[in-house]
Design brief:
By secondary structure, this protein is of the alpha/beta class. The chain is built from seven helices and four strands, in the order H-E-H-E-H-H-E-H-E-H-H. The protein has helices at residues 20-39, 58-68, 79-84, 89-93, 134-143, 157-160, 164-179; strands at residues 45-47, 73-78, 100-105, 149-152. The chain has a four-stranded parallel β-sheet with strand order 1-2-3-4. The longest helix has 20 residues, at 20-39.
């Protein structure tokens, strides 16, 4: 599940301009409802806090998940969104491993805390070629005790044209090296 709006220039503005306590309450209420539906079907959900949205901070994502009180709602640790939102590896290392459902392994051209836009131009970089100190972030995720799914994200049109099998092998190898 993604926080929104996906495109702030569209007609849907999401929770933009709503004070945090109300954003927290509404988001937790909606997550709870979704979690209840999913639990009846043995479905788990993870929340991805997008950097350009009102709900973008790691601590806020954790707050709303906790407030939803659903065992089937967790969190994705997305390096790009967290880096751009000003999170640190130290914060990531303190996340309860049971809340983490997936790690998105990716990089950023933007400065730490810059809050990239929905166009995600700061992602136009090969993973390992940007500004995120990937080893620190990988180590932080591992420090939680998380041992689940890692997903390499490469949201760069210039790299989409490369051989997908070779790209997958290269990114997998980089992640394997950093996981050591």
């Amino acid at each position: 599940m993604l926080t929104g709006p996906l495109d702030p220039s569209s007609s849907y503005k999401g929770l933009a301009g709503i004070p945090w306590p109300e954003t927290r309450r509404l988001t937790a209420k909606n997550l709870k409802a979704l979690g209840e539906i999913g639990s009846g079907h043995h479905v788990k959900f993870f929340l991805e806090a997008l950097t350009w949205t009102p709900l973008h901070k790691l601590e806020h994502a954790i707050e709303v998940i906790d407030a939803a009180e659903q065992d089937n709602i967790g969190l994705v640790i997305d390096f790009w969104h967290l880096w751009d939102s000003g999170a640190t590896p130290e914060q990531v290392a303190k996340v309860n491993k049971d809340l983490i459902y997936c790690v998105h392994f990716c990089d950023s051209l933007e400065q730490w805390g810059q809050r990239g836009t929905f166009e995600q131009r700061g992602r136009d970089v090969w993973t390992g070629g940007g500004r995120i100190p990937l080893k620190e972030w990988v180590d932080a995720a591992l420090a939680t005790g998380f041992d689940g799914c890692w997903s390499c994200e490469l949201l760069s049109p210039k790299y989409w044209e490369l051989d997908p099998w070779q790209t997958a092998r290269d990114l997998k190898r980089l992640l394997e090296i950093l996981l050591l």
